[in-house]
Design a protein that fits this description.
Blueprint: H1 5-17, E1 22-33, E2 36-47, E3 57-60, E4 64-74, H2 76-87, E5 90-93, E6 96-99, E7 107-109, E8 122-127, H3 138-149, H4 157-165, H5 170-173, E9 178-183, E10 187-189, E11 195-197, E12 200-207, E13 216-224, E14 231-233, E15 239-240, E16 248-255, E17 259-268, E18 271-279, H6 287-295, H7 300-308, H8 312-325, E19 329-332, E20 341-344, E21 350-356, H9 362-382, E22 389-395, H10 406-411, E23 414-417, H11 419-428, H12 435-448
Parallel strand pairs: 2-9, 21-22, 22-23
Antiparallel strand pairs: 1-2, 1-4, 3-4, 5-6, 7-8, 8-9, 10-12, 11-12, 12-16, 13-14, 13-17, 15-16, 17-18, 19-20, 20-21
Helix pairs in contact: 1-2, 7-8
Length: 452
Amino acid sequence: MLANPYKSQFISAAEDWVCNSSSLDIRYVAIKVGEKTNLLAASIGVSPVPPKLDMSFSLATEGVFAGQIQESGKSKKEILELLMKAAQGKIDANGLTFELLEDGELGYHSELIWGDKWFSELELQVIGGRNNSFAYSHVDSSKIDDALRQATPPFDGLADLVGWLGLKTPVQTSSAPSINLAVMPPVDYDFRACKLEKDLLSLKLLSHPEFDLGKLNFAVRTVPGDGIQSRRQIASDFKWKLSRKGVREGKTKIRLKNADSALTMLVIGNTTVRRQWFIDQAKSGNNRLVTVQLFDKELRMVRNALFESSDATRFEMGVASLFFLMGFSSVVQLESDSPDVVVATPSGRLVLVECTTRIADFSLKLGKLVDRKRMLIKQLSDSQSPSTVDGVLVCGVPRDQIAIREEELQKHQIALISKDELYSSLDRVRFHIDPDKYIDDAIALTSIRKFS
């Protein structure tokens, strides 16, 4: 019985999203101590497209069972049965069955309840008993690591294995064992073919060939628009081609009125996939945006620096450019022992910005930012030049992947801007942004968020 609302919502939506011939990715790690085999962590991912590279492997040593299974062409019925079983805490992999040990009932968590997300995959976390003991001796740990170094394929201990699979286990995080389920949408935008220009909105969607188009809903809202007529449902306006190379294309061109920008909303069944703004760049009232776009059309280089490049220096330049577009005065520091970026608001408020593209150096960056903020406040006070000094930590990974105690940020009044906020901030540069309010909102957002 689907009594838990998170589980009910996930399974119901999955019935709309999962298609025949979808691809499956299963990952798992279990350890055996004595006669007990404990599932540490597992994940199941469902995608409408096959993987580009086969990463499948199976590993069994005296103390560890682990692997990754990638399969294409699974039927909708098979995938839904597998997801239902996993939602009950059980995983079948490589001829073995692994089960979350229960201490009372299984727990469930999902971010589907957050309605302000710009993109949402279907996701559900199934949580095992929180009081299950995974403690094992240093001798057991050493044996496990030694065995993994001799396995095929070899891994440099349990930490290397878990990192390769992209899982989080109770051994490292002191959290409960869990199974993470994710289903990618069978329909999404082809952004290269979408634009708003001279009141004409051009859209292109890519769909799994087996997806039931009757479950597709697509709405548009025009800004500033012409009253209630600015809000329309347009799913029926898409013209769909026959499947080609495993993908079905749907296109439409919608004539709008008074459209400086347009918000589009893609929903499958009753679950939102994506909300996306499209902006007519020629109508921008932000002179900074007009100037930057003259030399960087559609902000392609800024987007590349913020979201695609792995180069830390380029990421810092992208952050500095974004702050400039939002109305800040910004400078990238040349001295290595200094904040990555320093910005100022029109009112004279100073903001020290540390940037990181990795989770691993998050705490180090935070420590440096706190020290440098304290040093600048003291320097300004000693020179009798009082000014408000704030600190912002910009991390190029999604917020739900950043593990830190909120108390550390709140204590030092440090704002956290994750990849999620970078996306939304870049979408907002078309409009007027108050830099002081932006910093205040970022600090307030950090104060109310809960980190795991």
